[in-house]
Write a structure and sequence with these properties.
The structure is a homodimer of 137-residue chains. By secondary structure, chain A is an alpha+beta fold. Helices cover 30% and strands 36% of the residues of chain A. Chain A is globular, with a radius of gyration of 15 Å.
Chain lengths: 137, 137
């Protein structure tokens, strides 16, 4: 497989662990050596592996955790790091997401994730005006 | 300056160009060699320099463009790439943002940006539940 294929496979593994609530699998996906951060939709900027994994423990352990599917993933290589942009179909809504990976001992590990609300791609004509949260909603 | 200082300075230059509507300055900040992508709040995942710069042309040229200030920026180095997480104060609302940089000819250039609505840090007790856009809002 190419590096791009490997990154997309790591990205899919993240969503597979998310979809089935696999916390050990989720933990294996996140980097252990590199800095780790995460911005959940509507949430604060978290950094540090312990804080990020605790947030996933809460999300994956939630009784009303929605199903999630990744759509339209595209990977961009930057040497030993790579990022993916994609859409998350989540309980009938759609989020746009960034997933940043670093190569660690030959494997692509997640170092940062951000997701935020968007419209389904087919409903979008152009980028929305750059407005603050209170105006957007 | 350290690499971290340089990355934070590049991040601030991005927000300075944003704040004053400086499109040429904004163009100089974005990478020319590496892949470029951008997810504006509520908008689609854009990729390609032309599409990303066109989105900034629209935003910076808008008559009702709000002021923007970057707060709480933290930089994380990954060799020749680096990412910043920060908050954007924008017209009275707050967004959480990711800015990904790559070193190009000795200068840190922006390769990806995502921002999405969040709460001001002092109002946050814990990450919000992972819910889709239609539930969040």
């Amino acid at each position: 497989m190419s590096d791009t294929d490997d990154v997309l496979a790591a990205n899919q593994a993240f969503y597979d662990a998310f979809a089935v609530g696999d916390l050990p699998g989720m933990s294996r996906i996140w980097a252990e050596v590199e800095p780790v951060a995460c911005i959940h939709p509507g949430g604060p900027a978290l950094h540090g592996r312990d804080l990020v994994m605790e947030s996933w423990r809460q999300i994956l352990g939630s009784g009303n955790r929605p199903g999630v599917r990744c759509r339209g993933a595209e990977a961009f290589l930057l040497g030993e790091t790579a990022f993916v942009i994609c859409y998350e179909e989540l309980g009938g809504g759609v989020l746009a997401a960034t997933n940043l990976f670093a190569r660690q001992a030959g494997a692509w590990r997640l170092v940062h994730h951000q997701a935020g609300p968007t419209m389904p791609p087919q409903q979008q004509q152009q980028p929305m005006p750059r407005q603050p949260a209170r105006v957007l909603h």
